[in-house]
């Protein structure tokens, strides 16, 4: 099984973000599910609305904060560790979405890390068939961590940060 190195960052003023171990568990579940044996490294940064909106505008031309942004790293040379890239997760968007979708906050955080990590590994949901594949993988990984289907909005599984 792969060893994951996580650089976990929180922007100034962020309070009550998930524990690093929660983030690492979600990312590692992706690596395990996909059978990646090489050591991997990724950065996860928890941000406020303004930083998320600035990055979303700069890189996606969308002028609003979004739940998760993925910035894959593609090394020009073979490295002993696979550098996946960076995830930027907007705390307020994730927490608002969890409430609106009647999900536990921690389940939604976990889903965002899984979703973003899959993007770092090349998965996307632009085409319908790709979206179906990606969602199926997300559902299986969430289930492996005892979370409900992230695309159902009626559950409220009790997990703690």
TrEMBL record:
<keyword id="KW-0479">Metal-binding</keyword>
<dbReference type="GO" id="GO:0004521">
    <property type="term" value="F:RNA endonuclease activity"/>
</dbReference>
<dbReference type="GO" id="GO:0008270">
    <property type="term" value="F:zinc ion binding"/>
</dbReference>
<keyword id="KW-0540">Nuclease</keyword>
<feature type="binding site">
    <location>
        <position position="115"/>
    </location>
    <ligand>
        <name>Zn(2+)</name>
    </ligand>
</feature>
<keyword id="KW-0378">Hydrolase</keyword>
<dbReference type="InterPro" id="IPR023091">
    <property type="entry name" value="MetalPrtase_cat_dom_sf_prd"/>
</dbReference>
<keyword id="KW-0963">Cytoplasm</keyword>
<feature type="binding site">
    <location>
        <position position="119"/>
    </location>
    <ligand>
        <name>Zn(2+)</name>
    </ligand>
</feature>
<keyword id="KW-0690">Ribosome biogenesis</keyword>
<dbReference type="Pfam" id="PF02130">
    <property type="entry name" value="YbeY"/>
</dbReference>
<keyword id="KW-0862">Zinc</keyword>
<dbReference type="InterPro" id="IPR020549">
    <property type="entry name" value="YbeY_CS"/>
</dbReference>
<feature type="binding site">
    <location>
        <position position="125"/>
    </location>
    <ligand>
        <name>Zn(2+)</name>
    </ligand>
</feature>
<protein>
    <recommendedName>
        <fullName>Endoribonuclease YbeY</fullName>
        <ecNumber>3.1.-.-</ecNumber>
    </recommendedName>
</protein>
<dbReference type="GO" id="GO:0005737">
    <property type="term" value="C:cytoplasm"/>
</dbReference>
<dbReference type="GO" id="GO:0004222">
    <property type="term" value="F:metalloendopeptidase activity"/>
</dbReference>
<comment type="function">
    <text>Single strand-specific metallo-endoribonuclease involved in late-stage 70S ribosome quality control and in maturation of the 3' terminus of the 16S rRNA.</text>
</comment>
<dbReference type="InterPro" id="IPR002036">
    <property type="entry name" value="YbeY"/>
</dbReference>
<comment type="similarity">
    <text>Belongs to the endoribonuclease YbeY family.</text>
</comment>
<keyword id="KW-0255">Endonuclease</keyword>
<dbReference type="GO" id="GO:0006364">
    <property type="term" value="P:rRNA processing"/>
</dbReference>
<keyword id="KW-0698">rRNA processing</keyword>
């Amino acid at each position: 099984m792969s060893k994951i190195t996580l650089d976990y960052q929180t922007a100034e003023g962020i309070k009550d973000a998930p524990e690093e171990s929660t983030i690492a568990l979600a990312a590692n579940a992706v690596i395990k599910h996909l059978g990646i044996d090489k050591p991997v490294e990724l950065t996860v940064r928890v941000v406020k609305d303004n930083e998320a909106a600035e990055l979303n505008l700069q890189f996606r031309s969308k002028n609003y904060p979004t739940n998760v942004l993925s910035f894959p790293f593609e090394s020009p040379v073979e490295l002993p560790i696979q550098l996946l890239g960076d995830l930027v997760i907007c705390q307020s968007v994730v927490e608002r979405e969890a409430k609106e979708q009647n999900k536990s906050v921690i389940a939604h955080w976990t889903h965002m890390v899984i979703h973003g990590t899959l993007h770092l590994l090349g998965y996307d949901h632009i085409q319908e068939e790709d979206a179906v594949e990606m969602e199926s993988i997300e559902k299986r990984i969430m289930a492996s961590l005892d979370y409900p289907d992230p695309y159902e909005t009626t559950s409220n599984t009790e997990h703690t940060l």
